[in-house]
Design brief:
Distance between the termini: 22 Å
Mean pLDDT: 76
Largest sheet: none
Structural class: mainly alpha
Radius of gyration: 28 Å
Order of helices and strands: HHH
Number of strands: 0
Helix content: 40-55%
Length: about 100
């Protein structure tokens, strides 16, 4: 879907005509807003910066998770079923085909 910010939509229906639900349409207060969908984005810059700082403070490698997996590998308790291996192979191949 393409959004063109420079053009306006069609003219609104006449006030004397019924809308789809059978109700009369109200007279728009401004001609600029009539018949167009409008969206306004607002960003709380402080909140965005706070969240970015929080994400950047997280370690890139999750040490506890890595340590637990290493322990399972060393003790020989880490197992992966044939079905899990097959699913991973299919998923990887499907990802390669979709251009990921």
């Amino acid at each position: 879907m393409r959004v063109d910010l420079l053009t306006h939509g069609p003219e609104p229906p006449d006030n004397n005509k019924a809308s789809r639900a059978g109700q009369r349409t109200a007279t728009p207060q401004t001609s600029e807003a009539a018949g167009t969908d409008q969206t306004h984005f607002s960003f709380d810059q402080a909140r965005v910066q706070s969240l970015a700082a929080e994400v950047m403070a997280q370690p890139e490698i999750r040490g506890q998770k890595v340590g637990a997996l290493q322990n399972l590998l060393v003790t020989g308790r880490y197992t992966v079923s044939d079905a899990q291996i097959a699913q991973a192979m299919v998923a990887e191949r499907a990802g390669a085909n979709s251009g990921k």
